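Researcher: We are triaging several targets before committing to wet-lab work. For this one, the compound of interest is S-adenosylmethionine. I'm pasting the protein sequence and the ligand SMILES. What I need is the predicted three-dimensional arrangement of the protein with the ligand bound, expressed as structure tokens, so it can go straight into our comparison scripts without reformatting.
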Amino acid sequence: MGKRWQEKRKNEHYYKKAKKEGYRSRAAYKLKQLHEKYDLLAKDDVTVDLGAAPGGWLQVAREKVGREGFVLGIDLEPIEELDYENVKTIQADITEEGIEELILKNLPRRPKVILSDASPNISGVWEVDHARSVDLGRSALSLAQELFDHEGNILIKVFQGKFFEELKREARKDFDFLKASKPEASRKRSAEIYLIGKGFIRD
Ligand SMILES: C[S@@+](CC[C@H](N)C(=O)[O-])C[C@H]1O[C@@H](n2cnc3c(N)ncnc32)[C@H](O)[C@@H]1O
């Protein structure tokens, strides 16, 4: 079996699985797999999901935090409402000034988890897309630094490339545990990689 064919079959598998199981995106399985491996979300956690449309991660996060937790999704695009009282969405740019205040205003308490699956519009110019993706990752990391109280976990998607190590180094200062990981549900050919940080350290 050729590699390309295997990949195509895997993508179709997750696409069909998401349809059948009622998830809004195949990306839902990436969060599920990373959570299974790294135990990122706990019951009752307040979670912020950056770049959340169409909402697959929101669905998975709500499953994990349960009825007493809270999930806030943010995207440039509008997100169709989810049928849960404790899932809220706002349309906003995560790189804009004032985003911390906007997020805090929409949360019941400070977050324990910050997720970011935000991706730039793909220009096709590799260097540009990589740099934009790292910028989005950096915005997610600085939101974690601003918004976490004395503990917190992050999961941040970035397109791999020369600036990735820099971002990793920055994050290493803030977390007890830091890892880069690619879940099985992510296409092998895709450059995406996920940065996982656990045990936030407040200086
Ligand atoms: C791969 S999708 C997210 C999929 C989502 N995790 C799911 O499971 O449905 C990436 C999203 O990032 C959003 N995005 C990109 N730049 C953004 C920004 N500056 N602020 C907010 N959202 C952004 C895009 O609009 C897009 O919807």
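Researcher: Any quick observations?
Model: The beta strands are 46-50, 70-75, 87-91, 113-116, 153-159, 175-181, 192-200.
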